[in-house]
Design goal:
The protein is of the alpha/beta class. It has 13 helices and 13 strands. It has a 7-stranded parallel beta sheet with strand order 5-6-7-8-9-10-11. A 4-stranded antiparallel beta sheet has the order 3-2-1-13, sandwiched between helices. It binds 2-succinylbenzoate and magnesium ion. The site of 2-succinylbenzoate has 11 residues, from loops.
């Protein structure tokens, strides 16, 4: 297979409500969308999960655009071997830039799966028809608003809730949600907001409020602080930002710093690496689950396919389309199904029909790259 074109669109989608984390507030997601077309007319899509500002990690839309245009797209536009494995090997010498690499890798996985006539889930060796999901709840204007918002999500059918926390928005709000919903599967995520000296304080409120999982409380390199928190804790310590490749997972496992792995396709550079991290964690008896970056239906479809793997034993941050956007970029939005689940698409590739009309409506710019001849 050879490519005839690569189209890079910049999309702007308004969130249904602002999403506030310890690092900032997002009202609208601006992101790059990659559409690859092969000479025989197959089309593969990949979503780049970088944002305008490098707040979650060091990548931004501008750095991603530069990496894609200068380093990653020229390589595949001239290539005869378009397998995702080959791409991963070819770009391994470029440091970092995982989100940009993942945009290409996921689009190539979509193409490869379509060429074989199988779903991305099947391509990844996954077989579940539905996957358990939860919802990630941003920092709210007040504790009362948070309790109300969580209640609405429970009414929608979500069975697991992850609260965004930060210093000053933890013990009080988490305790209020716990008192309102005594049986809730309650997780928290701090996106690196605490200093390592906060181990004792976090342990105290997380234990008192029966938090099931504490995600990335400390800076990404603070592996020992996470290990200290995990020692004898009645909750799981989940790493998100700290796990960027197989080596960082290996070290975190060895240090006892991780008892749950958030696998984000963008953060680790693609679906294949994401799968291998989950397999490695499972070998140490550590559960994995698929995290999210407020993706549109396109990135979501890739995430849902990965979440169908047997190693993904915890509910993902993969909510229904309407939790994020009024209009998605796919024809039929993801809907929340019975038992707090999403259905894994069965059709070829990502298995969702992309709305080119919606893309034209929400894109701010577009550029098409073609093979040099
Ligand atoms: O840390 O998991 C995170 C969204 C943006 C950046 C970082 C994170 C998140 C989420 C949202 O928690 C998960 C979702 O897409 O539903
Ligand atoms: Mg996180």
């Amino acid at each position: 297979m050879r490519l005839s074109s690569a189209r890079l669109d910049e999309i702007a989608l308004d969130l249904v409500e602002p999403f506030e984390t310890s690092f900032g507030v997002e009202k609208r997601r601006r992101f790059l969308l990659l559409r690859l077309e092969s000479r025989d007319g197959l089309v593969g899509y990949g979503e780049c999960v970088a944002s305008t500002d490098p707040l979650y990690s060091s990548e931004s839309n501008l750095s991603a655009r530069d990496m894609l245009a200068r380093h990653f797209l020229p390589g595949i536009l001239g290539a005869s071997d378009l397998s995702p494995e080959k791409f991963r090997a070819t770009v391994a010498r470029f440091r970092g830039n995982s989100m940009s690499k993942a945009a290409v890798e996921t689009a190539l996985v979509d193409l490869a799966a379509k060429e074989r006539g199988v779903s991305v889930a099947r391509f990844l060796g996954a077989s579940r028809a539905r996957i358990p999901v939860g919802v990630s709840v941003g920092i709210q204007p007040s504790v009362a608003a948070l309790v109300r918002r969580v209640g609405e999500y429970l009414e929608d059918g979500y069975a697991r809730v992850k609260l965004k926390v930060k210093p000053g928005w933890d013990d009080g709000p988490v305790g209020a949600v716990r008192r309102a919903y005594p049986d809730l599967d309650l997780w928290v995520d701090a996106n690196q907001a605490y200093p390592p000296s906060a181990v004792g304080a976090i342990r105290s409120w997380a234990e008192r409020h029966r938090v099931a999982q504490v995600e990335q409380p400390f800076p990404e390199r603070a592996i020992r602080a996470h290990a200290k928190l995990a020692r004898g804790a009645p909750f799981r310590v989940c790493l998100d930002e700290s796990i960027v490749d197989p080596e960082s997972l290996e070290d975190a496992l060895d240090a006892g710093a991780v008892t749950s792995v958030n696998v984000k396709v963008g953060r680790v550079g693609g679906l294949l690496t994401g799968r291998s991290l989950a397999v490695r964690a499972a070998r140490s008896g550590v559960p994995a689950w698929v995290g999210g970056m407020l993706e549109s239906g396109i990135g979501r479809a890739h995430n849902v396919a990965l979440a169908a793997r047997p190693e993904m034993t915890l509910p993902g941050d993969l909510s229904a389309s309407d939790r994020y956007y009024r209009q998605d970029l796919i024809e039929r939005p993801f809907l929340l199904g019975p038992g707090s689940t999403l259905e894994v698409p069965k059709g070829p590739g990502i298995g969702v029909e992309v709305s080119e009309r919606a893309i034209r409506r929400y894109r701010r710019s577009t550029k098409t790259f073609r093979p040099a001849r």
